[in-house]
Automatic annotation (TrEMBL):
PROSITE patterns: ABC_TRANSPORTER_1, ABC_TRANSPORTER_2. Keywords: ATP-binding, Nucleotide-binding, Transport. InterPro entries: AAA+_ATPase, ABC_transporter-like_ATP-bd, ABC_transporter-like_CS, P-loop_NTPase. PANTHER family: ABC TRANSPORTER, ATP-BINDING PROTEIN. This is Multidrug ABC transporter ATP-binding protein. It comes from Virgisporangium aliadipatigenens. Belongs to the ABC transporter superfamily. SUPFAM superfamilies: P-loop containing nucleoside triphosphate hydrolases.
């Protein structure tokens, strides 16, 4: 997939420092700090109301921080010479003028930002909207508006992408498509920051996850590291004497599920320890692998009661 380049310096450094936002007596974002790395996808995950959108809005000057700041290459977003070329954003998919066609919407934006006209067609192609380029945005589905929002974010060929729940309204094909797109944008050296309230949308896309709950960072680490720390590993073993091994494993406090093919799924004990136990009892293992490492449960445990859908207590 060939994409033209306008300016090539993807080494953007984006830094959030002690950012806080209060709305009345609600603290939406509570003194959070992080730095985003070029060349990788950072997932920003947390339940609805955790403060993800507010953080992203403050990062691009749509909301004013109560305190703290966000700097892109050492400057505030408002002070950037060519913001659309530095930071592409998808924050509010409803923002486009409904009466305009997708192509016109993008061309108008391109012109006001000194971006060549042809870039509109390039980004429409990238997001799969070429066929509806001349259709009015008012008739677009949520998924199509999300794709247009993504095209808008990509218009200035920016080094940084801030995307708030971009998979919202996309069908399963669209979710796989966006996953691939985000990965390839990061592989080009861009900094990709993408939010979601669903672990399933991010676990296979992000290199790193920042988990937010009630405006605070609950975890911030590489996906591999989080998986090792919190994820539930499931070992799959196929012994010559399943019933016997099952009994032994249970005595060692492992949870065992017997599968129809005679294999055992084991949680609470890793593959090497299972191998040692089996060997000690003269049980032969035809297979011994770690089959799954799910972050979903860890995420749910970490963020339980961290949403704001529970009404705030009034005093
Ligand atoms: N403009 C606003 N006025 C008052 N409260 C707001 C406003 N925007 C967001 N909030 C509150 O801030 C909290 C965080 O919201 P938000 O950043 O939208 O979370 P998320 O994007 O993680 O779902 C919520 O309690 C929300 O109700
Ligand atoms: Mg949000």
């Amino acid at each position: 997939m060939a994409r033209s380049r306008i300016v090539r310096n993807f080494d953007a450094m984006i830094e959030v420092h002690e950012l806080t936002k209060r709305f009345g007596d609600t603290t939406a974002v509570d003194g959070i700090s992080f730095r985003l790395d070029p060349g990788s996808v950072t997932g920003f995950i947390g339940p609805n109301g955790a403060g993800k959108s507010t953080t992203m809005r403050m990062m691009v000057g749509l909301d004013r921080p109560t305190s703290g700041r966000c700097l892109v290459d050492g400057r505030r977003y408002a002070d950037l010479a060519a913001p659309m070329r530095s930071v592409g954003t998808l924050i509010d998919a409803e923002a486009a003028h409904k009466g305009r066609s997708a192509r016109n919407h993008l061309r108008v934006l391109a012109r006001t930002h000194g971006i060549p006209d042809r870039r509109a067609d390039e980004v429409l192609e990238t997001v799969g909207l070429t066929d509806v380029a001349n259709k009015r945005i008012g008739g677009f589905s949520l998924g199509m508006r999300q794709r247009l929002g993504l095209a808008t974010a990509l218009l200035g060929d920016p080094a940084v992408l801030l995307l708030d729940e971009p998979a919202n309204g996309l069908d399963p094909d669209g979710i796989i498509w966006i996953r691939t797109l985000l990965r390839s944008l990061a592989a080009e050296g861009r900094t990709v920051f993408v939010s979601s309230h669903l672990m399933g949308e991010l676990a296979q896309t992000a290199h790193r996850l920042i988990v937010l709950g009630r405006g605070r960072v609950l975890a911030d680490d590489a996906v591999d590291a989080l998986t090792a720390r919190f994820g539930t590993r499931v070992a799959r073993v196929r012994p010559d004497r399943p019933a016997e091994l099952e009994e032994i494993l249970r005595r060692h406090d492992a949870a065992v599920t017997r599968l129809p093919d005679g294999a055992l799924e084991v949680t609470g004990m890793d593959s090497p320890d299972i191998a040692v136990l089996a060997h000690r009892h003269g049980i032969l293992l035809f297979e011994n692998t770690t089959v799954a490492a799910s972050l979903e449960e860890a995420y749910l445990a970490l963020t339980q009661d961290q949403g704001r859908h529970v009404a705030k207590v009034s005093r």
